[in-house]
Amino acid sequence: MADDPTRDGLKNQGDGLVDEVKGRVRNTVGGITGDSSEQLKGKAEELKGKARRKIGEKQVEADNDA
What we know:
Blueprint: H1 5-33, H2 36-65
């Protein structure tokens, strides 16, 4: 099924989690190296991932309620 909300939700959750982890790593590396620009980019990527993961959770939740 091309329009499977649960599968789309799970993909968004997984991709969001990956972005969160990458953002945390980037933020940490920026902190270690003293690169505030890299820290900010890491924080932004982490927030983007968190938002995507939450969207995925809501997609799965909505599909389960339907």
